[in-house]
Amino acid sequence: xxxxxxxxxxxxxxxxxxxxxxxxxxxxxxxxxxxxxxxxxxxxxxxxxxxxxxxxxxxxxxxxxxxxxxxxxxxxxxxxxxxxxxxxxxxxxxxxxxxxxxxxxxxxxxxxxxxxxxxxxxxxxxxxxxxxxxxxxxxxxxxxxxxxxxxxxxxxxxxxxxxxxxxxxxxxxxxxxxxxxxxxxxxxxxxxxxxxxxxxxxxxxxxxxxxxxxxxxxxxxxxxxxxxxxxxxxxxxxxxxxxxxxxxxxxxxxxxxxxxxxxxxxxxxxxxxxxxxxxxxxxxxxxxxxxxxxxxxxxxxxxxxxxxxxxxxxxxxxxxxxxxxxxxxxxxxxxxxxxxxxxxxxxxxxxxxxxxxxxxxxxxxxxxxxxxxxxxxxxxxxxxxxxxxxxxxxxxxxxxxxxxxxxxxxxxxxxxxxxxxxxxxxxxxxxxxxxxxxxxxxxxxxxxxxxxxxxxxxxxxxxxxxx
Length: 467
Fold this sequence. Notes:
This protein is α/β, with parallel strands linked by helices and about 475 residues long. The protein has helices spanning about 10-25, 25-30, 45-55, 60-65, 70-85, 110-115, 125-130, 135-140, 145-155, 175-185, 195-205, 235-245, 265-280, 305-310, 315-320, 330-355, 375-385, 395-415, 420-440, and strands spanning about 165-170, 190, 210-215, 260-265, 285-290, 440-445, 460-465. It has a seven-stranded mixed beta sheet, sandwiched between helices. β4, α13 and β5 (about 285-290) form a beta-alpha-beta unit. α1 (about 10-25) packs antiparallel against α19 and α11 packs antiparallel against α12 (about 235-245). The two termini are about 25 Å apart.
């Protein structure tokens, strides 16, 4: 971080409050279920914005949706007009602000305390290979998709050099942990609940003589009262056997003298890590959150005192908003996605007529192969799945046309909501950062790779501060 700019930056709590204020004021624009409405639900209060989104051609929408700055540029003039008419003033500059600009706590950064590299894309060959030789890199990256390997190596490049044992959370086969063990020479414990993944990961670690050990356990069952004495299990074979029976640990695997890492641990899983780490006083954490909507409760449970004071009540549906950006979908994938939505909306209109109940009826996930069939076949499958009697309403082409018309509406509702997707993600990340600060950690928030590698590129670095 540039120390000359330090005084000009806001603390996480101040920035959280600004973002929270914007989200509370704008909730009508982004807390919307597009499939459940038949018109722009906010059009009366925001007529200029409504006119602006309907003025956009259908073939413009994907391009705008893929690039936040273009989306804000296209819609913010109309939104500002409506706000002036309403006598309101929103800080729309937050819609394009980067999380990497929010990297200050008190008057020192984590960088200053621990020599952490400022979170940003390390765009060089050594970074991309995670410090491995060319030959080793070929082995360590085998069977990992290209972008995932880029994410792993970039994540490792941004870990502070603390010379601490490492606990890898939700490890899978331990790809992240094995790179840390090899490139950093650290002792790594990888926690994963799926026994076959533990077994495969341990086999690789043993083959390469890495100081990496797997613990097979359910993260949510750690400390469960019914746990047996299975923390004494020492062999991976024994741990695998116990893991197949939903093995609970009797004690917290996190300790004070440890660095905990988690790359894209979903929803409650990374929240569980934060809870266990702060309880243990774990010295350092590095977390990249993902899939905020995968939670056990029906609504989001705020972590920090600040977030608990917010009037926002976030459903699982709301928590999916930050994930609604694809920077990697190719034209064929986009076309299939649009086809699927039109079909779902067409059947939705059909089932409302057949059931005489004006409410959305969710369908299970589709296999991509089903999209190569006809809309008629899709309707027959959906009707059977949901026990809908189609009766005489079998002019499927007419219902498909209704679906396409409704899709024009839902795409525009979603487009406006997407103005706020990055802001909502920043709210969620800053909730975690503020929580860690409240627990006595110095925190640095940034981006560990480019958005083109993964939109889930935020990185939270935290280090326990000495009293």
